[in-house]
Amino acid sequence: MTGITGQDGCYLTEFLLGQHYEVHGLVRRSSSFNTARLNHLYRDVHDPSANLILHHGDLLDGSSLRRVLSTVEPVEVYNLAAQSHVRISFEEPEYTADVVATGTLRLLEAMRDYSSLSKPMRLYQASSSEMFGCAPSPQNEVTPFHPRSPYGVAKAAAHFQCVNYREAYGMFICCGILFNHESPQRGETFVTRKITRALTRIKLGLQEHVYLGNLEARRDWGFAGDYVEAMWLMLQQSEPDDFVIATGQSFSVRDFLDEAACQLGLDWGPHVKIDSRYFRPAEVDFLQGDASKARRVLGWSPKVGFQQLVGMMVERDLELARQEATLIGAGHAVS
Ligand code: NAP
Ligand code: GDD
Asked: What is the Cα–Cα distance from 277 to 274, expressed in whole angstroms?
Protein backbone atom coordinates (compact mmCIF):
# COMPACT_ATOMS: atom_id res chain seq x y z
CA MET A 1 0.00 0.00 0.00
CA THR A 2 1.34 3.40 -0.92
CA GLY A 3 -0.04 6.26 1.20
CA ILE A 4 -0.45 3.95 4.20
CA THR A 5 0.20 6.80 6.66
CA GLY A 6 -2.74 8.86 5.35
CA GLN A 7 -6.42 8.85 6.33
CA ASP A 8 -7.48 6.09 3.91
CA GLY A 9 -4.28 4.14 4.53
CA CYS A 10 -5.11 3.66 8.19
CA TYR A 11 -8.72 2.58 7.54
CA LEU A 12 -7.71 0.24 4.71
CA THR A 13 -4.94 -1.30 6.83
CA GLU A 14 -7.39 -1.93 9.64
CA PHE A 15 -9.84 -3.49 7.19
CA LEU A 16 -7.25 -5.73 5.48
CA LEU A 17 -5.77 -6.92 8.78
CA GLY A 18 -9.33 -7.84 9.74
CA GLN A 19 -9.44 -9.95 6.55
CA HIS A 20 -6.20 -11.70 7.70
CA TYR A 21 -3.96 -10.06 5.11
CA GLU A 22 -0.29 -9.39 5.74
CA VAL A 23 -0.04 -5.68 4.95
CA HIS A 24 3.12 -3.99 3.64
CA GLY A 25 3.14 -0.22 3.52
CA LEU A 26 5.37 2.33 1.84
CA VAL A 27 6.42 5.16 4.16
CA ARG A 28 8.32 8.18 2.93
CA ARG A 29 11.20 9.61 4.89
CA SER A 30 10.24 12.42 7.22
CA SER A 31 12.17 14.37 9.87
CA SER A 32 9.38 13.68 12.35
CA PHE A 33 7.21 10.61 12.85
CA ASN A 34 4.49 10.31 10.19
CA THR A 35 3.03 6.99 11.34
CA ALA A 36 0.74 8.27 14.12
CA ARG A 37 -2.43 7.00 12.40
CA LEU A 38 -1.00 3.46 12.43
CA ASN A 39 0.12 3.34 16.07
CA HIS A 40 -2.87 1.29 17.22
CA LEU A 41 -2.24 -1.33 14.51
CA TYR A 42 1.53 -1.60 14.56
CA ARG A 43 3.48 -4.36 16.31
CA ASP A 44 7.25 -4.46 16.47
CA VAL A 45 8.65 -6.44 13.51
CA HIS A 46 10.54 -8.66 15.98
CA ASP A 47 7.16 -9.92 17.22
CA PRO A 48 6.57 -13.14 15.21
CA SER A 49 2.87 -12.30 14.87
CA ALA A 50 3.56 -8.87 13.29
CA ASN A 51 1.42 -8.61 10.15
CA LEU A 52 1.95 -4.94 9.30
CA ILE A 53 5.37 -4.23 7.83
CA LEU A 54 6.56 -0.78 6.80
CA HIS A 55 9.15 -0.06 4.09
CA HIS A 56 10.84 3.21 3.21
CA GLY A 57 9.95 4.36 -0.29
CA ASP A 58 8.57 7.24 -2.30
CA LEU A 59 6.49 7.65 -5.47
CA LEU A 60 9.20 10.08 -6.63
CA ASP A 61 11.75 7.25 -6.50
CA GLY A 62 11.07 4.42 -8.97
CA SER A 63 13.92 2.29 -7.63
CA SER A 64 12.30 2.13 -4.19
CA LEU A 65 9.01 0.98 -5.78
CA ARG A 66 10.80 -1.79 -7.69
CA ARG A 67 12.73 -2.89 -4.61
CA VAL A 68 9.63 -3.12 -2.42
CA LEU A 69 7.66 -4.99 -5.10
CA SER A 70 10.35 -7.62 -5.52
CA THR A 71 10.87 -7.96 -1.75
CA VAL A 72 7.20 -8.23 -0.83
CA GLU A 73 5.74 -10.01 -3.89
CA PRO A 74 2.26 -8.58 -3.25
CA VAL A 75 -0.96 -10.03 -4.66
CA GLU A 76 -2.83 -6.73 -4.36
CA VAL A 77 -1.39 -3.21 -4.60
CA TYR A 78 -3.32 -0.15 -3.39
CA ASN A 79 -1.96 3.15 -4.72
CA LEU A 80 -3.22 5.73 -2.23
CA ALA A 81 -0.19 8.05 -2.08
CA ALA A 82 -0.68 11.61 -3.29
CA GLN A 83 -0.13 15.28 -2.62
CA SER A 84 -3.87 15.27 -2.01
CA HIS A 85 -4.62 18.89 -1.08
CA VAL A 86 -6.39 20.74 -3.89
CA ARG A 87 -5.57 24.29 -2.70
CA ILE A 88 -1.90 23.41 -2.25
CA SER A 89 -1.78 21.96 -5.78
CA PHE A 90 -2.19 25.54 -7.07
CA GLU A 91 0.93 26.51 -5.08
CA GLU A 92 2.93 23.40 -6.03
CA PRO A 93 1.63 22.26 -9.43
CA GLU A 94 4.84 20.61 -10.68
CA TYR A 95 5.40 18.69 -7.48
CA THR A 96 1.74 17.61 -7.43
CA ALA A 97 1.97 16.36 -11.03
CA ASP A 98 5.23 14.55 -10.26
CA VAL A 99 3.81 12.65 -7.28
CA VAL A 100 0.26 12.09 -8.50
CA ALA A 101 0.63 11.57 -12.26
CA THR A 102 4.27 10.57 -12.88
CA GLY A 103 4.41 8.73 -9.54
CA THR A 104 1.52 6.52 -10.66
CA LEU A 105 3.29 5.96 -13.99
CA ARG A 106 6.46 4.90 -12.11
CA LEU A 107 4.42 2.40 -10.14
CA LEU A 108 2.69 1.08 -13.28
CA GLU A 109 6.03 0.58 -15.03
CA ALA A 110 7.51 -1.17 -12.00
CA MET A 111 4.45 -3.44 -11.81
CA ARG A 112 4.54 -4.18 -15.55
CA ASP A 113 8.19 -5.27 -15.41
CA TYR A 114 7.64 -7.23 -12.22
CA SER A 115 4.46 -8.95 -13.48
CA SER A 116 6.27 -10.22 -16.57
CA LEU A 117 8.76 -12.08 -14.32
CA SER A 118 6.47 -13.26 -11.58
CA LYS A 119 2.82 -13.78 -10.65
CA PRO A 120 0.39 -11.07 -11.83
CA MET A 121 -0.76 -8.50 -9.28
CA ARG A 122 -3.95 -6.51 -8.98
CA LEU A 123 -3.82 -2.71 -8.63
CA TYR A 124 -6.29 -0.32 -7.04
CA GLN A 125 -5.82 3.28 -8.15
CA ALA A 126 -7.17 6.15 -6.00
CA SER A 127 -8.91 8.27 -8.62
CA SER A 128 -10.97 11.25 -7.50
CA SER A 129 -14.25 13.08 -8.03
CA GLU A 130 -12.07 16.20 -8.34
CA MET A 131 -11.48 14.97 -11.93
CA PHE A 132 -15.13 15.86 -12.71
CA GLY A 133 -14.51 19.50 -11.80
CA CYS A 134 -17.33 21.50 -13.37
CA ALA A 135 -19.05 18.56 -15.15
CA PRO A 136 -22.79 18.54 -14.46
CA SER A 137 -24.05 16.44 -11.55
CA PRO A 138 -24.88 13.74 -10.64
CA GLN A 139 -21.54 12.40 -11.89
CA ASN A 140 -21.05 8.71 -12.76
CA GLU A 141 -18.52 6.52 -14.63
CA VAL A 142 -19.45 7.94 -18.07
CA THR A 143 -19.45 11.63 -17.09
CA PRO A 144 -16.61 13.40 -18.98
CA PHE A 145 -13.85 14.86 -16.79
CA HIS A 146 -13.36 18.64 -16.65
CA PRO A 147 -10.79 19.13 -13.85
CA ARG A 148 -10.41 22.56 -12.23
CA SER A 149 -7.09 22.25 -10.36
CA PRO A 150 -3.54 20.97 -10.94
CA TYR A 151 -4.43 18.13 -8.56
CA GLY A 152 -7.54 17.24 -10.60
CA VAL A 153 -5.57 17.33 -13.85
CA ALA A 154 -2.83 15.12 -12.36
CA LYS A 155 -5.43 12.63 -11.06
CA ALA A 156 -7.08 12.52 -14.49
CA ALA A 157 -3.67 11.81 -16.08
CA ALA A 158 -3.02 9.00 -13.58
CA HIS A 159 -6.51 7.64 -14.20
CA PHE A 160 -6.00 7.47 -17.97
CA GLN A 161 -2.54 5.91 -17.51
CA CYS A 162 -4.19 3.15 -15.50
CA VAL A 163 -6.92 2.60 -18.09
CA ASN A 164 -4.26 2.49 -20.81
CA TYR A 165 -2.10 -0.08 -18.96
CA ARG A 166 -5.20 -2.22 -18.44
CA GLU A 167 -6.06 -2.07 -22.16
CA ALA A 168 -2.50 -2.27 -23.53
CA TYR A 169 -0.99 -4.91 -21.24
CA GLY A 170 -4.05 -6.70 -19.85
CA MET A 171 -3.13 -5.73 -16.29
CA PHE A 172 -5.78 -6.09 -13.58
CA ILE A 173 -6.26 -2.44 -12.61
CA CYS A 174 -9.34 -0.86 -11.01
CA CYS A 175 -9.82 2.87 -10.55
CA GLY A 176 -12.09 3.93 -7.72
CA ILE A 177 -13.50 7.38 -8.47
CA LEU A 178 -14.13 8.30 -4.87
CA PHE A 179 -16.08 11.36 -3.81
CA ASN A 180 -14.98 13.22 -0.66
CA HIS A 181 -14.72 10.98 2.37
CA GLU A 182 -13.96 12.12 5.86
CA SER A 183 -13.42 10.72 9.35
CA PRO A 184 -11.92 11.62 12.73
CA GLN A 185 -8.57 10.72 11.05
CA ARG A 186 -9.01 13.32 8.30
CA GLY A 187 -6.08 15.72 7.80
CA GLU A 188 -6.67 18.92 9.74
CA THR A 189 -6.43 21.28 6.75
CA PHE A 190 -9.36 19.74 4.84
CA VAL A 191 -12.50 21.76 5.44
CA THR A 192 -14.55 19.23 7.46
CA ARG A 193 -11.83 18.50 10.00
CA LYS A 194 -10.80 22.15 10.09
CA ILE A 195 -14.39 22.96 11.09
CA THR A 196 -14.79 20.23 13.73
CA ARG A 197 -11.35 20.99 15.24
CA ALA A 198 -12.11 24.71 15.39
CA LEU A 199 -15.72 24.56 16.66
CA THR A 200 -14.88 22.08 19.43
CA ARG A 201 -11.96 24.28 20.56
CA ILE A 202 -14.22 27.35 20.39
CA LYS A 203 -16.80 25.51 22.47
CA LEU A 204 -14.19 24.96 25.22
CA GLY A 205 -12.84 28.51 25.01
CA LEU A 206 -9.50 27.45 23.47
CA GLN A 207 -9.85 29.70 20.42
CA GLU A 208 -12.20 32.46 19.30
CA HIS A 209 -12.25 32.45 15.49
CA VAL A 210 -11.72 30.22 12.48
CA TYR A 211 -10.91 31.55 9.01
CA LEU A 212 -12.55 29.80 6.05
CA GLY A 213 -13.01 30.34 2.29
CA ASN A 214 -15.98 29.51 0.06
CA LEU A 215 -18.92 28.35 2.20
CA GLU A 216 -21.22 27.69 -0.79
CA ALA A 217 -19.26 24.84 -2.45
CA ARG A 218 -21.17 21.56 -2.25
CA ARG A 219 -19.64 18.15 -1.69
CA ASP A 220 -20.86 14.56 -1.51
CA TRP A 221 -19.30 13.64 1.85
CA GLY A 222 -19.07 10.00 2.97
CA PHE A 223 -17.22 8.10 5.68
CA ALA A 224 -13.68 6.85 4.89
CA GLY A 225 -14.30 3.57 6.75
CA ASP A 226 -17.12 2.70 4.32
CA TYR A 227 -15.10 3.72 1.25
CA VAL A 228 -12.03 1.53 1.87
CA GLU A 229 -14.29 -1.52 1.79
CA ALA A 230 -15.28 -0.55 -1.77
CA MET A 231 -11.58 -0.41 -2.75
CA TRP A 232 -11.11 -3.99 -1.62
CA LEU A 233 -14.35 -5.19 -3.25
CA MET A 234 -13.16 -3.85 -6.63
CA LEU A 235 -10.07 -6.09 -6.49
CA GLN A 236 -12.15 -9.18 -5.63
CA GLN A 237 -14.14 -9.09 -8.92
CA SER A 238 -13.40 -11.43 -11.83
CA GLU A 239 -12.82 -8.49 -14.25
CA PRO A 240 -11.13 -5.14 -13.61
CA ASP A 241 -13.33 -2.06 -13.94
CA ASP A 242 -13.78 1.52 -12.69
CA PHE A 243 -16.38 2.58 -10.13
CA VAL A 244 -17.80 5.79 -8.69
CA ILE A 245 -18.08 5.62 -4.89
CA ALA A 246 -20.36 8.22 -3.31
CA THR A 247 -23.37 8.70 -1.04
CA GLY A 248 -25.55 10.45 -3.67
CA GLN A 249 -26.21 13.35 -1.30
CA SER A 250 -24.65 16.79 -1.54
CA PHE A 251 -24.21 19.40 1.21
CA SER A 252 -22.55 22.81 1.27
CA VAL A 253 -19.66 23.81 3.53
CA ARG A 254 -22.24 26.07 5.24
CA ASP A 255 -24.46 23.00 5.86
CA PHE A 256 -21.49 21.23 7.44
CA LEU A 257 -20.88 24.25 9.70
CA ASP A 258 -24.59 24.34 10.65
CA GLU A 259 -24.67 20.65 11.52
CA ALA A 260 -21.43 20.66 13.55
CA ALA A 261 -22.45 23.84 15.42
CA CYS A 262 -25.94 22.47 16.08
CA GLN A 263 -24.48 19.27 17.57
CA LEU A 264 -22.31 21.43 19.85
CA GLY A 265 -25.14 23.84 20.77
CA LEU A 266 -23.12 26.73 19.31
CA ASP A 267 -23.92 29.74 17.09
CA TRP A 268 -21.03 29.76 14.58
CA GLY A 269 -21.85 33.25 13.20
CA PRO A 270 -19.61 35.34 15.49
CA HIS A 271 -16.73 32.85 15.24
CA VAL A 272 -16.33 32.28 11.50
CA LYS A 273 -14.42 34.82 9.39
CA ILE A 274 -13.88 34.66 5.66
CA ASP A 275 -10.29 34.87 4.39
CA SER A 276 -9.67 35.15 0.65
CA ARG A 277 -6.51 33.03 0.92
CA TYR A 278 -8.70 29.93 1.29
CA PHE A 279 -10.49 30.52 -2.03
CA ARG A 280 -9.16 28.68 -5.08
CA PRO A 281 -8.30 30.23 -8.49
CA ALA A 282 -10.89 27.84 -9.96
CA GLU A 283 -13.49 26.15 -7.76
CA VAL A 284 -15.43 22.91 -8.02
CA ASP A 285 -18.90 24.13 -7.07
CA PHE A 286 -21.05 21.04 -6.99
CA LEU A 287 -20.19 17.37 -6.54
CA GLN A 288 -22.85 14.70 -6.19
CA GLY A 289 -22.04 11.14 -7.17
CA ASP A 290 -24.17 8.40 -8.66
CA ALA A 291 -22.81 5.11 -7.27
CA SER A 292 -25.51 2.86 -8.70
CA LYS A 293 -22.93 0.77 -10.62
CA ALA A 294 -21.04 0.02 -7.38
CA ARG A 295 -24.32 -0.89 -5.70
CA ARG A 296 -25.28 -3.20 -8.55
CA VAL A 297 -21.91 -4.89 -9.28
CA LEU A 298 -20.07 -4.74 -5.95
CA GLY A 299 -23.08 -4.83 -3.64
CA TRP A 300 -21.60 -1.75 -1.96
CA SER A 301 -23.55 1.05 -0.32
CA PRO A 302 -22.55 3.60 2.33
CA LYS A 303 -23.52 2.85 5.94
CA VAL A 304 -22.74 6.21 7.57
CA GLY A 305 -24.88 9.23 6.70
CA PHE A 306 -24.06 12.95 6.87
CA GLN A 307 -25.30 13.66 10.43
CA GLN A 308 -23.59 10.58 11.83
CA LEU A 309 -20.34 11.45 10.05
CA VAL A 310 -20.35 14.98 11.48
CA GLY A 311 -21.23 13.47 14.87
CA MET A 312 -18.26 11.10 14.95
CA MET A 313 -15.86 13.89 13.96
CA VAL A 314 -17.30 16.31 16.53
CA GLU A 315 -17.14 13.68 19.26
CA ARG A 316 -13.48 12.85 18.61
CA ASP A 317 -12.42 16.48 18.34
CA LEU A 318 -14.33 17.41 21.48
CA GLU A 319 -12.36 14.72 23.29
CA LEU A 320 -9.07 16.13 21.92
CA ALA A 321 -10.11 19.65 22.94
CA ARG A 322 -10.98 18.44 26.45
CA GLN A 323 -7.56 16.79 26.77
CA GLU A 324 -5.94 20.04 25.64
CA ALA A 325 -8.00 22.07 28.13
CA THR A 326 -7.04 19.70 30.95
CA LEU A 327 -3.34 20.05 30.13
CA ILE A 328 -3.60 23.84 29.99
CA GLY A 329 -5.56 23.82 33.29
CA ALA A 330 -2.73 21.81 34.87
CA GLY A 331 -0.22 24.44 33.74
CA HIS A 332 1.26 22.57 30.77
CA ALA A 333 1.99 24.43 27.54
CA VAL A 334 0.41 22.66 24.55
CA SER A 335 2.35 22.72 21.30
P1 NAP B 1 -3.92 11.82 2.73
O2 NAP B 1 -4.48 11.65 4.12
O3 NAP B 1 -3.44 13.16 2.30
O4 NAP B 1 -2.72 10.76 2.58
C5 NAP B 1 -1.83 10.83 1.51
C6 NAP B 1 -0.76 9.77 1.68
O7 NAP B 1 0.17 9.85 0.60
C8 NAP B 1 0.07 9.93 2.97
O9 NAP B 1 0.38 8.64 3.45
C10 NAP B 1 1.33 10.61 2.46
O11 NAP B 1 2.47 10.42 3.27
C12 NAP B 1 1.50 9.87 1.14
N13 NAP B 1 2.40 10.54 0.20
C14 NAP B 1 2.40 11.84 -0.19
N15 NAP B 1 3.39 12.05 -1.08
C16 NAP B 1 4.05 10.88 -1.23
C17 NAP B 1 5.15 10.45 -1.99
N18 NAP B 1 5.85 11.30 -2.78
N19 NAP B 1 5.54 9.16 -1.93
C20 NAP B 1 4.89 8.28 -1.13
N21 NAP B 1 3.84 8.63 -0.35
C22 NAP B 1 3.42 9.91 -0.42
O23 NAP B 1 -4.98 11.32 1.64
P24 NAP B 1 -6.29 10.40 1.84
O25 NAP B 1 -7.43 11.27 2.17
O26 NAP B 1 -5.94 9.25 2.70
O27 NAP B 1 -6.53 9.92 0.32
C28 NAP B 1 -5.94 8.72 -0.17
C29 NAP B 1 -5.86 8.80 -1.69
O30 NAP B 1 -7.19 8.93 -2.21
C31 NAP B 1 -5.09 9.98 -2.25
O32 NAP B 1 -4.48 9.57 -3.46
C33 NAP B 1 -6.17 11.02 -2.55
O34 NAP B 1 -5.72 11.90 -3.54
C35 NAP B 1 -7.29 10.11 -3.01
N36 NAP B 1 -8.65 10.61 -2.79
C37 NAP B 1 -9.03 11.04 -1.56
C38 NAP B 1 -10.34 11.45 -1.35
C39 NAP B 1 -10.80 11.93 0.00
O40 NAP B 1 -11.86 12.57 0.07
N41 NAP B 1 -10.10 11.61 1.07
C42 NAP B 1 -11.25 11.40 -2.41
C43 NAP B 1 -10.84 10.93 -3.65
C44 NAP B 1 -9.52 10.52 -3.83
P45 NAP B 1 2.76 11.38 4.57
O46 NAP B 1 1.88 10.85 5.68
O47 NAP B 1 4.21 11.18 4.80
O48 NAP B 1 2.38 12.78 4.17
N1 GDD C 1 -9.45 23.08 2.70
C2 GDD C 1 -10.32 24.10 2.86
N3 GDD C 1 -10.07 25.05 3.81
N4 GDD C 1 -11.41 24.16 2.05
C5 GDD C 1 -12.28 25.18 2.25
C6 GDD C 1 -12.08 26.16 3.22
C7 GDD C 1 -10.90 26.11 4.03
O8 GDD C 1 -10.65 26.94 4.90
N9 GDD C 1 -13.13 27.03 3.18
C10 GDD C 1 -13.95 26.60 2.23
N11 GDD C 1 -13.44 25.48 1.66
C12 GDD C 1 -14.06 24.74 0.53
C13 GDD C 1 -13.13 24.50 -0.66
O14 GDD C 1 -13.06 25.67 -1.48
C15 GDD C 1 -13.84 23.33 -1.33
O16 GDD C 1 -14.84 23.80 -2.19
C17 GDD C 1 -14.48 22.57 -0.17
O18 GDD C 1 -14.41 23.44 0.98
C19 GDD C 1 -13.81 21.25 0.17
O20 GDD C 1 -12.42 21.49 0.35
P21 GDD C 1 -11.43 20.34 0.92
O22 GDD C 1 -11.96 19.82 2.19
O23 GDD C 1 -10.05 20.89 0.88
O24 GDD C 1 -11.63 19.13 -0.13
P25 GDD C 1 -11.60 19.11 -1.73
O26 GDD C 1 -13.00 18.80 -2.19
O27 GDD C 1 -10.94 20.29 -2.31
O28 GDD C 1 -10.64 17.86 -2.01
C29 GDD C 1 -10.82 16.64 -1.30
O30 GDD C 1 -11.72 15.81 -1.99
C31 GDD C 1 -11.27 15.36 -3.27
C32 GDD C 1 -12.38 14.48 -3.88
O33 GDD C 1 -13.33 15.30 -4.51
C34 GDD C 1 -9.44 16.00 -1.13
O35 GDD C 1 -9.55 14.92 -0.23
C36 GDD C 1 -8.92 15.48 -2.45
O37 GDD C 1 -7.72 14.73 -2.23
C38 GDD C 1 -9.98 14.56 -3.07
O39 GDD C 1 -9.54 14.01 -4.28
From this structure: 9
